[in-house]
Amino acid sequence: MEFTLIELFIIIIAITLGCVVHGTLGIGFPLVATPIIALAIDVRTAIIILLIPTMTVNITSIISGGRFMDVVKRFWFILIFIGIGSYIGTTMLVLFDPNPFRLLLALVILFYLYTRDTSSLNWAFVRKHPTVSGAGVGSAAGLLAGTVNITMPPLIIYFTEMRLKPLQIIQILNVCFFMGKISQTGTFIAHDALDLQTVLISIPFSVVAIVILKYGITIRNRIDAETYRRWLMTALKIIAFVLVVQFLTGL
Fold first, then answer.
1. How far from the centroid of its chain's Cα atoms is residue 196's Cα?
2. Cβ contact 105:148 at 8 Å
3. Crossing angle, helix 152-161 and helix 166-190, to 10 degrees?
4. H helix or E strand, kind and range, residue 165
5. Please, which residues have CB within 8 angstroms of residue 191's CB and are 6 or more apart in sequence?
6. Are the beta carbons of 55 and 183 closer than 8 angstroms?
């Protein structure tokens, strides 16, 4: 796999922007980086290139806050369903056009934001039935990770409604993202869509990602919990808008 100078420049810009966002919010690296890279190369190749950098960003985000095993022990079962959903979603990515899933995800996000703002639906059932709702959210998140490389919206909704602290949300989200990527990587290997050359090419991108991510984390450490939650809701709105644009343009 070889890239032109223009393609390399776009990839570096995408990784830089993605890491600034991810460092600040604790989420968002593949969401920002994937569509930008897709401007130069196809979406499937963009997802494969970002596999290793994404897992690197996830690991850094998990360990940077310490005591991450507390939330892992509490929500371990979601990881299993993410793995199952990711396998199914990645298989669908290899076999089918994933574009319709973007519109479906956008509609789910908009429905959540509307009902949350208007109080027309009580989301307390998430806290009342954390295991059942968590299993559904995990499966949906894994499916979306495999098809459109976006895991976070269902998980943000779930963990926000569970009233976790910002650092806990960031840690468990990144654990979920990481597990989804492991499953996705295994599926790509099973379908002969990932080789050693691609992994080696991704390593320098991963180094760049870690350096930029640290800068974003310093920004996050300066904001309070309520501000962080508002930013998460704003991020969901942006995600929904981007998904609709991607669906309409086919990018």
1. 24
2. yes
3. 150
4. none
5. 91, 94
6. no
How far apart CA 231 and CA 225 sit, in angstroms, is: 10
Per-residue pLDDT tens, the chain, 251 aa: give them: 677 888 889 999 999 999 988 888 888 888 788 878 888 887 777 888 888 899 999 999 888 877 788 888 888 888 888 888 878 877 877 777 767 777 777 887 787 777 766 666 667 778 888 888 888 888 888 877 777 767 777 888 888 888 888 888 888 888 887 877 787 787 778 777 777 777 788 888 899 999 999 888 888 888 887 888 788 888 888 878 877 887 788 66
- pTM given for the model: 0.73
- Helix H or strand E segment including 45: helix 43-49
DSSP 125: H
Rounded to whole angstroms, the Cα distance separating 192 from 148 reads 19
Q: What is the CB neighbour count within 10 angstroms for residue 40?
A: 17
> For residue 232, what are the contacts with CB-CB under 8 A and spacing of at least 6?
25, 27, 156, 160, 169
Three-class SS state of 171? helix
CA distance 210 to 55: 11
Element (H, E) at 25: helix 5-25
CA 47 to chain CA centroid, nearest Å: 12
Cα-atom radius of gyration of the chain, to the nearest Å? 17
The type of residue at 141 is: A
Please tell me the distance from the alpha carbon of residue 243 to that of residue 48, in angstroms, as a whole number.
Answer: 19
